């Protein structure tokens, strides 16, 4: 499925004249022909190989199933980055049951990197070879590297909560979309904090990060596989420290 999605996407990446439709009348939520073609390609494979499973996809919605399993698809997570020519977007695929994601894949076709976690696997493959995924052992906020996609994260209250954490860490970076979660699983960064996510944005990252030894919850410490505000952390101590700051009254 990831191979098929990549083959559908790459002819459009950095192509002259690539345009996007806007799905949000009040802002800018782009979708391109590449998004739609990639999800259609993945659904075609599932129709043949896993017709009994349900599907939840960003572009084509929900398809019911009978197996109790659901494939959760985001054909291009980071379409704004895709339109801008940055290689920080990715194909997200998760396999979930009623408890949440069991397996996830973060795939970056342009760089040739694939981050896979769940069902006994925590693995990275790329141009330099392959390696196990393992979060790093950062426990102190002052030593942590924090990523989020938008500097203007969420509401005013959510922005204030984010700034409380950002003010305590060593380094803050922006604009990485799903690639930030992949870097956390690979032991390159320590925290990702985001607001306003959908299930298809977060389920694959949850599976990959948890398989690599990290934690992903909402901002209250509960499950986030249905979407919402996400906190991903490399270690329990780091997660607890960030969670305490996110929960403080403004």
TrEMBL record:
Its cofactor is Mg(2+). Pfam families: Inositol_P. Pathway: Amino-acid biosynthesis; L-histidine biosynthesis; L-histidine from 5-phospho-alpha-D-ribose 1-diphosphate: step 8/9. Its EC number is 3.1.3.15. InterPro entries: His_9_proposed (IPR011809), Inositol_monoP_metal-BS (IPR020583), Inositol_monoP_superfamily (IPR051090), Inositol_monophosphatase-like (IPR000760). The keyword Amino-acid biosynthesis applies. GO terms for biological process: L-histidine biosynthetic process. Keywords: Amino-acid biosynthesis, Histidine biosynthesis, Hydrolase, Magnesium, Metal-binding. PROSITE patterns: IMP_1 (PS00629). Signal peptide: none annotated. Mg(2+) binds at residues 58, 74, 76-77, 201. It catalyses: L-histidinol phosphate + H2O = L-histidinol + phosphate. GO terms for molecular function: histidinol-phosphatase activity; metal ion binding. Transmembrane segments: none annotated. It comes from the Bacteria. NCBIfam families: his_9_HisN. Belongs to the inositol monophosphatase superfamily. This is Histidinol-phosphatase. It comes from Pseudoponticoccus marisrubri. The lineage of its organism: Bacteria, Pseudomonadati, Pseudomonadota, Alphaproteobacteria, Rhodobacterales.
